[in-house]
Write a structure and sequence with these properties.
Blueprint lengths: L9 E7 L3 H17 L8 E6 L4 H7 L4 E6 L12 H8 L5 E6 L18 E4 L7 H10 L23 E9 L3
Parallel strand pairs: 1-2, 1-4, 2-3
Antiparallel strand pairs: 4-6, 5-6
Length: about 180
């Protein structure tokens, strides 16, 4: 396992909704990070709110070290593309590794040892939108082939010929 990076090299970020439910999820994430995050408990959490951030949300999140930033939606038809705002911000920040989290995640321990300065890390998806033969067919259409880096889905234990991950928890080192 790669050597863990010191927390000073980590940038933690998430995207949240400017609604009470979104603020509650973000509050739970920040509180769990501060309570159970170990060496990462003191790392600031950058929260990106699309199209607004209510002052009431700012007041309850500030004591937990959450820096709220309002960003425009991402110009794409898929709503989940707003996560790309985290990567834009990271590209302008000093820091070795981006810890990109969904705001409905809670931290239950210090995961510093799972960070890598050289490898992107994530959790395999719960389920796959394609069956293994369909992945092979898609790779062939793209002029690619399975390279032995497949994963097993965490929900169905299906072996996939590709590294297909859930984007709710990603560790991305700067070189990537």
């Amino acid at each position: 396992m790669p050597t863990a990076q010191p927390p000073a090299d980590v940038v933690m970020a998430c995207v949240a909704e400017n609604r009470p439910r979104g603020a509650q999820k973000l509050y739970n994430l920040a509180l769990s990070l501060r309570t159970f995050g170990g060496a990462l408990a003191g790392v600031p959490l950058h929260a990106f709110f699309v199209d607004g951030l209510g002052p009431r949300f700012q007041e309850c999140l500030a004591p937990l070290g959450v820096r709220g930033t309002v960003v425009p939606g991402f110009p794409a038809p898929a709503a989940r593309t707003i996560k790309l705002r985290m990567f834009e911000d990271f590209s302008r920040q000093p820091g070795g590794t981006l810890v990109a989290l969904d705001c409905d995640v809670v931290v239950v321990g210090d995961f510093t040892a799972s960070l890598s300065a050289t490898a992107v890390r994530g959790v395999p998806a719960t389920v796959s939108p394609l069956r293994p033969p369909q992945w092979v067919e898609l790779l062939a259409l793209l002029g690619l082939g399975p390279d032995g880096r497949g994963v097993r889905t965490v929900g169905t234990a299906e072996e996939l010929p590709v590294p297909y991950f859930n984007s709710g928890v990603l560790f991305v080192p700067r070189p990537h």
